[in-house]
């Protein structure tokens, strides 16, 4: 699952929040040119868990995205493709 507008959320913040939807296998926030990106990735153990996390959010004005609130940070999420899709 893609996570956008992460702001000051740490990987631990994201993992703690999204654990309510299932087993989080990986959290990644890329670093480019020495700066942390404002987006990241959450990989769940199953596709169903990712769908549950996506559906657990509120409507977001950007099509295909859902919103979540982690503390004071509003983030948006979008589903990506599965590991085993070909």
Describe the structure.
It is globular, with a radius of gyration of 12 Å. The chain has a single domain, classed as Alpha-Beta Plaits (2-Layer Sandwich), CATH 3.30.70.330. It is α+β, with helices and mostly antiparallel strands. Helix content is about 20%, strand content about 35%. A hairpin with a 2-residue loop joins β3 (about 30) and β4. The mean pLDDT is about 90. The strands form 2 sheets. Strands 2-5-1-8-7-6 form a 6-stranded antiparallel sheet. It has a two-stranded antiparallel ribbon with strand order 3-4. The longest helix has 9 residues, at about 45-55.
Notable characteristics:
two-stranded antiparallel ribbon, alpha+beta, 6-stranded antiparallel β-sheet
Give the SSE layout.
Elements: E1 2-4, H1 11-18, E2 24-28, E3 31-32, E4 35-36, E5 39-44, H2 47-55, E6 58-59, E7 66-70, E8 73-78
Antiparallel strand pairs: 1-5, 1-8, 2-5, 3-4, 6-7, 7-8
CATH architecture: 2-Layer Sandwich
CATH homologous superfamily heading = RRM (RNA recognition motif) domain
Radius of gyration: 12 Å
Topology as H/E string?
EHEEEEHEEE
Per CATH, the class reads: Alpha Beta
The residue fraction in helices comes out at 10-25%
Uncertain segments: none
- Which structural class do you get from the secondary structure elements? alpha+beta
Mean pLDDT value: 89
CATH topology: Alpha-Beta Plaits
The number of helical runs is 2
Q: What best-fitting shape do the alpha-carbon axes yield? A: globular
Number of beta-strand segments: 8
Which strands sit side by side, in order, in the main sheet?
Answer: 2-5-1-8-7-6
* Distance from first to last alpha carbon: 17 Å
* Number of domain units: 1
The fraction of residues assigned to DSSP E strands is: 35-45%
Largest β-sheet summary? 6 strands, antiparallel
């Amino acid at each position: 699952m893609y996570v956008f507008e992460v702001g000051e959320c740490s990987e631990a913040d994201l993992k703690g929040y999204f654990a309510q939807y299932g087993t989080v296998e990986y959290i990644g926030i890329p670093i480019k040119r020495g700066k942390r990106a404002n987006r990241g990735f959450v990989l769940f153990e199953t596709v169903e868990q990712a769908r549950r996390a996506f559906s657990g959010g509120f409507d977001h004005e950007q099509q295909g995205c859902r919103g979540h609130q982690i503390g004071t940070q509003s983030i948006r999420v979008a589903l990506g493709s599965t590991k085993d899709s070909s």
